[in-house]
Structure formats: C-alpha cells, structure tokens
Design goal:
Blueprint (H helix, E strand, L loop, with lengths): L1 E5 L5 E6 L15 E2 L21 H26 L6 H12 L5 H22 L6 E3 L10 E2 L1 E3 H13 L4 E8 L4 E7 L4 H18 L8 E7 L3
Parallel strand pairs: 8-9
Antiparallel strand pairs: 1-2, 3-5, 4-6, 7-8
Helix pairs in contact: 4-5
C-alpha cells in the first residue's frame, strides 16, 4: 500500500511506501523500514529519529584492510622467528624511526594528518547517514516498529508540481534539504508579490501534506522570467 498526495488538478503523486523493504536491500527514496528485532519500542507520540545507515560495505572494507595488515605483520614475525631476514619495508621503517624524532617537522605534520583523518572517520562512524531520506510521521494504525521515510528528491518533485499550479508561475525549481525547502520560480505575468504570496501558501500546505515528522520551512524566491 502506498500513500499519495492529491494536487489541485486531481493528480495523485506517490509519496511513500508503507510496507517494509525486503531483507538485505537498502530502503528506497520513499520507503518505510521496520525497526530491528530487540530494539526498544518508541512511544507513539515521540518524535521519530533519523534513519541510520547500516554501512555494510565500509565495515567490510575496513575489516579486510585490517586483516591484510595483520597477516602481513604476522608473516614477517614468523619469518624473523624462523631466523630469516625481515621484509625490506619493515627494516627501512625501523631505520627511519631511529633516524627521526617526534620533534621533527615531518613527523609532526604526518601525525597531524593522521589525527585529522581519525577525527573525520570517527565523525562519519557516529553520524546517522542516509541524508537523502526525510523522516515521516508514523502511519495511522501502524505498529510501533514501523517507520516511514520520504526521499528528498521525491519530496522536491511533489512540491515542484504543486508550485507549477500557481497562476503566473512559468517554471519552478525546488530543492528539499534536511532543514528547509528552497523554491525558485519564474513568473511571466501577474505581480511578483501576488505570485510569491500564493506560492508561499501553496508550498506550506504541500509541505504539511507530505506528512513529515519535522515540517520544513520554505524559502520562496520569485523573479520575472524572460519573454
């Protein structure tokens, strides 16, 4: 079953999917997902939180890199224990570490770069991800484990169609962000102030009809189009 948003012209736009996505597949731009088993049930009136990315591919790549480095060091350690010369790169690294001190400029720069990279990776690890999905209010009658989300591109398309219905609007560009909606329209007749007023009202109603958990304020700009 899918939710729809009705426009003034009678057209119906697909807003979001209300069924849970199949296991192992990433939710689409307007898909509802079910909370994993064992997760605490949320109060029906609480504000839904953002979707979290599972990050399977980055986690798998990180595990493979760590495994490869660990195997490399283990092989070198086994070779030394067997009275064989260690790898050339490790001997060269030992000589470089013996030659340079932590006070050297090169060491300080390399340490700063590694520290900055670590901070960036840490921030990316604790960030929710899935920035392209806007959280929606829970559908009526849905269980506590069902959450709905609407893709930002799908939301922008619906709002653009509604903006084009305003009298005097010749073209419109809509960008739906996580915190606000930006609408840029061109008008070929009527006063710009009148078009902007009507467009503000239509966009505000359309944003409310999207059913988002946190309604996005709209910033509307109207200019005169070229004939």
């Amino acid at each position: 079953m899918r939710g729809h948003v009705r426009t003034r012209g009678g057209h119906r736009h697909r807003a979001a999917a209300l069924q849970a996505h199949p296991a192992g597949r990433r939710p689409g731009p307007g898909a509802a997902v079910t909370a994993p088993a064992g997760s605490p049930a949320r109060h029906p009136h609480s504000t839904p939180h953002r979707f979290w990315s599972v990050r399977r591919v980055p986690a798998a790549l990180t595990a493979l890199v760590i495994l490869a480095v660990a195997c490399l060091f283990l092989y070198d350690l086994a070779a030394v224990r067997a009275h064989r010369p260690g790898m050339r790169w490790r001997r060269e690294l030992a000589r470089q570490l013996d030659r340079h001190t932590p006070a050297d400029t090169t060491v300080l720069i390399a340490g700063g770069v590694l520290a900055l990279a670590g901070v960036v990776l840490l921030v990316l690890a604790i960030a929710p991800g899935l920035r392209g999905i806007l959280v929606m209010r829970a559908p009526e009658g849905a269980g506590p484990g069902v959450r709905a989300g609407l893709g930002r591109k799908a939301a922008a398309l619906v709002l653009r169609d509604r903006a084009m219905e305003v009298s005097g609007v010749r073209s419109a560009r809509v960008k739906a962000g996580r915190r606000r909606v930006r609408v840029r329209a061109t008008s070929h007749f009527r006063e710009l102030d009148d078009v902007r007023t009507d467009l503000d009202g239509v966009v505000a109603v359309a944003v409310e009809e999207l059913g988002l958990a946190r309604p996005l304020p709209a910033r509307v700009r109207v200019r005169r189009g070229k004939e």
